[in-house]
Specification:
The chain is an alpha+beta fold. The chain contains four helices and eight strands, in the order βαβββββαββαα.
Length: 121
């Protein structure tokens, strides 16, 4: 049997080790406390409490607030393949503007489709 993921709207912010992003993670997503570990100063990680225990997010990962208020990290490539902009604003900015760039997977698919139409594949 095959299954399809239900369309669910989530809130997410891409983790960066800067004050503005950390404030957004706290104020917009309501993750409290925002706990960044600097054990390795060149590789700060955000520690996220989850039902399964503490998870860590590296710079560039997305911090997702799920439908039921749970938090979890997501790698950028997985995020871009799984989610698309809803067109709603987050923190006064249109999230769709940032995420409107096609993912590498989508660009590869478009290229393959174009090659098929031309008879190369």
């Amino acid at each position: 049997m095959k299954y399809r993921k239900k369309p669910v709207e989530i809130e997410a912010i891409q983790f960066a080790d800067d004050p503005d992003t950390l404030i957004k993670i706290n104020d917009v997503l309501r993750l409290d406390p925002v706990n960044v570990s600097y054990e390795d100063p060149d590789n700060p990680v955000l520690k996220i409490p989850t039902l399964e225990g503490a998870m860590t997010a590296q710079v560039g990962d997305y911090i997702i607030k799920g439908v039921h208020g749970e938090f979890y990290p997501c790698k950028p490539d997985i995020f871009e393949e799984t989610y698309e902009p809803s067109g709603r604003s987050v923190d006064g900015k249109l999230l769709a503007e940032k995420l409107a760039v096609p993912s590498k997977h989508e660009l590869d698919k478009q290229s393959r489709d174009a090659q098929r139409r031309k008879g190369f594949l």
